[in-house]
TrEMBL record:
InterPro entries cross-referenced by the UniProt entry: FAD-oxidoreductase/Apoptosis (IPR050446), FAD/NAD-bd_sf (IPR036188), FAD/NAD-binding_dom (IPR023753), FAD/NAD-linked_Rdtase_dimer_sf (IPR016156), Reductase_C (IPR028202)
Domain Reductase C-terminal: 339-411
Record organism: Methylobacterium komagatae
Protein name: NAD(P)/FAD-dependent oxidoreductase
Gene3D superfamilies: 3.30.390.30, FAD/NAD(P)-binding domain (3.50.50.60)
FAD/NAD(P)-binding domain location: 12-317
Pfam family of the protein (one): Pyr_redox_2
Cofactors demanded by this protein: FAD
Amino acid sequence: MPDRPSEPPPERIVIVGAGLAGLRGAEALRAAGFQGTLTIVGDEPHRPYDRPPLSKHVLLGLVPAEASRLPSELDDTVTWRLGIGARSLDRVARQLHLADGQSLEYDRLLVASGTRARPWIHDDEARLGNVFTIRTRDDAALLRLALAKRPQRVLVIGAGFIGCEVASVCRELDIPVALIDPSPAPLTRVLGATIGKLIGEVHKSRGVEMHFGTEVTHLDHRDGRVTGAVFADGERLSADVVVVALGAVRNVEWLAGSGLSADEGGVDCDEHGFVLDELGNPDHTIAAAGDVARFPHPLYGGRRVALEHWGHAVAQAEYAGRLLAGVEPVAPYAAVPNFWSTQGDMVVKSVGLTDGADAVAIVQGDPAERRFIALYGRAGRCIAALSVDSARWLPAYAEKVATAAPFPPVEATTDRPLREPEIQDPGFA
């Protein structure tokens, strides 16, 4: 690791973000021996909680939203400043200014401010009754109450992972639901059209109304409540609940004027996680982790990526916590990205990044049986692998991704299709 300025051990560390990354970063700091003042700032009033159950188990009513709190070994030596967001950062004075007008001094700072749900495009319509986003514990609790009233139809705008999971929940509850997206199939931007079409067929077979290759321009309403949606071609679709699932917005506004390199794509870091200033120099008092951190990934030629994955938030936060505690890293942060999602009655898991793939091949199993492995390639190398109800096969292909093995693989494997499938363009939008 390059030499960095010699400074005394930190006495005060502040973490901005009381989510998964903030929590695991705090735990890593303590585990690495940091005994000083540790303060965690969060704009929500809740202690850190697990987000994946919100769009599934909470909406189904299987668990209450408040039961999603994350377990932790942190003791009462940690100071929590909850319900108060960060407003600005003064790096010269090493002060974090909060939304309530107070300030916190720091020796080291961990940026783990995460993301928020991208709102509906029209502010007035976003405020209508029964128009929801789903990102926070409170979002999930409110949407659960609306679903419990048995709406006549739910419209889900956006067919990414969250949108598809919400549509799946509605069908499990036997609630009519329509899924709307300008892409040709669900999850196209993430998995490509080839795999997206297969997953779309699963949702369609479960009764989800599919409206693809089109987009909503306005929401209809009456007496302050949503009544449906208007499509770009003028078609109208009635509904008494609308869920906006248009992705996430990274929480970087509080860094404006700080001199750090940050924009809507995240806050830039070096290979170790130290945040870069506007000249590209690392600030060795500040690190970032989780959804908000944009860093060069060695597996993808040093291309800067910002990942919104549960496992990544944990791994990068633990790395950053040790970094800020003064533990010298033995290598740059290079954890292989991974995620999982429930789509209909299928469990989808992935390793690597499909973005930029120029080909995809089904290498094990059979899509007709909804049980297979898809391998993604770029320029003759494996860059990602996806399993559908086939998780036990995934580790072998994760190794190919981690080592950038040649694509397509040529060795024999068990349970391969009888006929070698044609390698296809994944069709990313």
